[in-house]
Amino acid sequence: MMLMLDQNSLANLSIPTVGTVLGFNKTGNDNTYLGADQGASIRQIMFDNVRLQNASICTFNTTKELVSNKTGYYSFQLNLVVKGPFTGNARIGVSRPYTGSIPPIGTNAFVAFLSQNTYNVDADGPMPLAVNGLLLMTAGQKVIFLTRYTDPTANTLDLESINYDRTLVSSLSVTYFLINFIIQKKLVVRRTIIGHVTKLNN
Q1: What average pLDDT does this structure show over 101-115?
Q2: What are the DSSP calls for 164-201, one per residue?
Q3: pTM
């Protein structure tokens, strides 16, 4: 099958682009995959393996911040699996975009979006945390990735001891969309809804 587009269609076409893929090294991060407690048991996720990076879109710096290098929408798929035991609620999320140094992160007000789940995991079980979301970021803004209630001294990244591979089950994927791409999608949905309403009114 062949897809044919005219010149106007090509001008409006925006293909999502992978900005970065992060993960963890095989060793050396059992207890250091999270930063220090910043208050209220909130900690920064400290990815240590940049698997793919398109520097024209975003970069992952030495202070574990993701820096946007191009204005647009950024889609985040964040997965973290740690070793039990754990009983209770745990959260994972992405910060609000900011500029400059990392602001105080000890409150939920700093979080753009998060997920929370209730766990009852024994010492030989995996504890998966995951969240997906979309943020509009201007060039130069930054975000970090956070957990709450997970203690890296009790819940380590030593998943190999329970027959999991830390390099496969924990990752961050960031995809970039042009602003025009999102606006065009919204207009298509709006026109579709209006079209249905017009037909119903007729």
Answers
A1: 91
A2: --HHHH-EEEEEEE-HHHHHHHHHHHHHHHHHHHHHHH
A3: 0.83
